[in-house]
Amino acid sequence: MKLTVLADNNTYIDMYYLGEPSLSFYIEDGKDRILFDTGYSDVFMKNARKMKIDLSEVNKVVISHGHNDHNGGLKYLLKKYNDFDLISHPSSFEYKEDENGLYIGSPLDIDEIRERSHVKLSRKPKKISDHLIFLGEIEVSQDFEPRYPIGKRIGYKKKEDDYLLDDSAIVYKGKQGLFIITGCSHSGICNIIEYAKKVCGDDRITGVIGGFHLFDVDERLKKTIEYFKENRIRNLYPCHCVSLNAKIELGKKMKINEVGVGLKLEIE
Ligand SMILES: [Zn+2]
Ligand SMILES: [Zn+2]
């Protein structure tokens, strides 16, 4: 599997791609060309063009959850390309707003997306290519990672706290074990890893890339580092929603890798 970072908060020195506080990865697995998230704007498309990645070959788009720093680019993608499978959790295209009432959900409603792509929503794990599985709704297994609300969603006719049940991830089943690819990890990075182990029946974690949603140097971060160590996760690629302080703390305890737009990984 090959993974290329098309959009992230960080850019590398001397590589003139565009950054934005969002996430988008381009993944090649066998004959499948997969987009995992589409960033906030058309930045991922501009970067792909500069990298000579042909997005017309994309046959699957996975949206990690319903926030617009992960699905905002769909508006631009669907203007140019169509006919791909779109895989996500059923709640990813609901109305979502932040604490101040600002809309932070999908730029298009699900019917508009259905007109131009094959929408395949699933709460259950779903195979998306030879070696990749979309995890669907993540089980909470770690007591230090309970679900907590961010903003509001429209529930049954009224606004309610949004516990982001839609927040999911994908997992690559490799020869050496599992490589986890996350969006924002609102469901808890360790809950996601633990659920991937359960779904795949494999306890070996070769690496993790994505937003880990870690900001404060607190008890949660301490327990997260303990979990990473217990699971002997060597290849950590924290990006997007991981603060500098959290990265410094992670880096004191274990090796972490810098992620930026243009990073390419090959995972066996
Ligand atoms: Zn989010
Ligand atoms: Zn995010």
The largest sheet, given as strand count, sense and whether it forms a barrel, is: 7 strands, mixed
The CATH topology comes to Metallo-beta-lactamase, Chain A
* Total helical segments: 7
Strand line-up of the largest beta sheet = 7-5-4-3-2-1-16
- SS-based class: alpha/beta
Give every kind of bound small molecule, once each. zinc ion
CATH superfamily: Ribonuclease Z/Hydroxyacylglutathione hydrolase-like
Q: How many distinct folded domains?
A: 1
Question: Any low-confidence stretches, pLDDT <50, length ≥5?
Answer: none
Strand content: 15-25%
Which architecture does the CATH hierarchy give at level 2?
4-Layer Sandwich
Q: Please identify the top-level CATH class.
A: Alpha Beta
Average pLDDT works out at 97
Molecular shape: globular
Cα-atom radius of gyration: 17 Å
Helix and strand string, N-terminal first?
A: EEEHEHHEEHEEEEEEEHEHEHE
Distance between the termini: 6 Å
SS elements, strand count:
16
Helix percent reads 10-25%
